[in-house]
Amino acid sequence: MYFSIFQITDLIRFDQNCNFDFHKIFAILIHMNQSQLLSLSTGYLSRLHLLKKDDILTLREVIREHNHLYHILEQPIISDTEYDQLFHTLARLESDHDMLDSDSPTAKLAILASEQFQKVKHIYPMISLDNTYSVEEVRDFEVRMRRILDIQKKFDYYIQPKYDGLGLAIIYSYGKFNQAITRGSWIEWEDVTIGALEIKNIPKQIEALKDVERMELRWEVMMSRTTFEKVNLERLDQWEKLFANPRNAASGSLRQIDPLVTRSRDLQFFAYSIPQIEQDENESKFYSLGKYGELMNLIISWGFDRKDFPFSRVSGIDELAWVIEKETQHHTEYFDFDIDGMVLKLDDMTLWDDLGRTEHHPRYAIAYKFPAKQVRTRVISIEHSVGRTGTVTPVANLEPVDVSGVIVRRATLHNYDELNRKWVREWDHVFIMRAGEVIPEIVSVIVDVRDGSEKIIDTPVVCPICSTPVEQETGKIAIFCPNSHCPAKVLGQFEMFVGKQAMNIDGLGPRQLEDFINKWWITDFASVFQLEKYRDQILELDGYQERSAQNLIDSLEKSRHTTLDRMFVWLNIPNVGKKTAKQLARTHAQLVNNMNPLETLFHITEEELIAVKDIWPETARAFVIYMQENRELVEWLYNELNIQYENIPDVPKWVSEVTGKSFCVTGSFENMSRDQIHGMIESHGGEVRSSVSSKLDYLIAGESAGSKLTKANECGVQILTIDEFIQKTAN
């Protein structure tokens, strides 16, 4: 017989003393229909503040099932943030109505272990951390500790990355690696020793522990994003299901029956805890550790890697709050590993016992979680977008959702192979993220909750704008519209032409361009510089007044002063972006000799370009063909514009102490922009870099330099003021 969720809920509310095994009923129900679980969870999330005592039992079962999907099946159907909201609501309801229960998921992680590996009991429970999402809640965390301890002294805190990995305990017996077990439930989980033996950065023997019968260490097993991409490419070649994220990949790799597969995945283990020293009074005295920082140094001395933020230890809640705000903005600069927050621990371990712990989390530590990168939403429709090159791209229109502080309504699907690979349909529930904190993209589809209403989108056979049959080059993935007069291509090309990377013309946005093109005032690139003759007509258009029209004319005149590499970008030559354009401009400068600079453009050969680093044959061919087919346009523009040879790397106008050195610029400067400083570096033959490492020669630091300055100091990079840098250019 089949019972709905709501029928079961009604039964519970009707008689809580009945003999039904409700845990089993709910587990069976939800396993049968994950769509129903998602619907119920979404309903709860939409009215968290309205939930009452009667919702507690059902909410427990919902959270248990999400635990099973996340930890066992590695197939979550809600985001981490949504799970935390449900979890904290349940904890609040249980507290408000005095319904605390040792069997509740707020007390322990009660999930079933996989039957693939042997169950192992933890001597010391592997409990979780309580989560917070704001500085205010972190301050409340300190208030709670002070209330328990009844002391007012300043607290020191130790900060660690909160890795999004797989919790693991490794056990040494008389200094030899003996066993590895996953976190699992609070008491028991899986023996994965065979896989853990293949993790290279886990010491197989620790000399300092040769006389110790048993020693256990804990932290996270991780896979780097670089390795994750490599593994998924290999699985794609083999037509295997792709891993959703690095955590999923790490978990699957560790649990391989074949250890050779695990070895090839390059997993990393980062240790952060020694439970018997932290929880056993005798062991604590033996090692004479009073600070958590001392514990971490002990772990390092045993041969384990340490991957911390630049701020490992801070003094006082105000400094902690400042670090949280800074690292929330800059944490992506430090790691090739996924982290979703910071672990904040009271550094004074002598106070840990007094603070104690619940069955779910310790009271001396808390996890501050960064704003969610991956969130759940729904695909409303999928449209076909045509870009400036004619490439047709599927774009998903989404139910609006907040992703890292930005309301996202659209996400690219890149191409139709990607659409089919990710199996995205209209009305699918999906996880999305902002790649590089900027571009929204669909990470994965929640396939298990489909109800049959989803619509498959076919690859178009004609251009959605002009209805020209689309084409596909041999060996290429993308499809494109071959019609050179396609309105979408034309508009896109002009948008590129007037954009900041090219001519940088203010006052010519997509709406204005479309108006001017429709009126035939703009017919080609050259006609853009002749808009002044339509000045009176422009003033008659909506949105234009005397001042705005004049600003447009002034911007056009200013844009005539440009560089050769910028001209290459906005000519819209296939395969030529900003970096390649600078390579082409450099090559042109080297080939000029006694020849007219303009004529040199038309005499450059494919062979000469292919010989240049990072210029591929298809790019060389496209450049040569463009120059041959568009000679009249290039000649007109070259003669009409004031072409400068600045900002071209490796062609220094001057030789100085800057030549051959690498620079990173950070902070703000009173009289110069960063672009101007970059131009000075490149004109003197220096290299501009975007990040700080030990290989960097100089960091030019202005006001509010932030985390890059800190990292430069840690790496031993020489710091320059802007005046010191200018002095070097003069030598």
Could you characterize the architecture of this molecule?
The protein is α+β, with helices and mostly antiparallel strands. It has six domains: 5-112, Helix hairpin bin (Helix Hairpins, Orthogonal Bundle), CATH 1.10.287; 121-369, DNA ligase/mRNA capping enzyme (D-amino Acid Aminotransferase, Chain A, domain 1, 2-Layer Sandwich); 375-476, OB fold (Dihydrolipoamide Acetyltransferase, E2P) (Beta Barrel), CATH 2.40.50.140; 487-559, DNA polymerase, domain 1; 563-644, 5' to 3' exonuclease, C-terminal subdomain (DNA polymerase, domain 1); 662-730, 3-Layer(aba) Sandwich (Rossmann fold). Helices cover 40% and strands 18% of the residues. The strands form six sheets. Strands 12, 13, 14, 15, 16 and 17 form a six-stranded antiparallel sheet that branches. It has a five-stranded mixed sheet with strand order 2-11-10-3-9. A four-stranded antiparallel sheet has the order 5-4-7-8. It is globular. The model is unreliable at 1-32, 109-117 and 646-651 (pLDDT under 50).
Structural class: alpha+beta
DSSP helical segment count: 30
CATH class assignment of the largest domain: Alpha Beta
CATH architecture of the largest domain: 2-Layer Sandwich
Main sheet makeup? 6 strands, antiparallel
Summed over residues and divided by their number, the pLDDT gives a mean of 79
- Head-to-tail CA distance between termini: 88 Å
Helical content class: 25-40%
CATH superfamily of the largest domain: DNA ligase/mRNA capping enzyme
Can you tell me the CATH topology of the largest domain?
D-amino Acid Aminotransferase, Chain A, domain 1
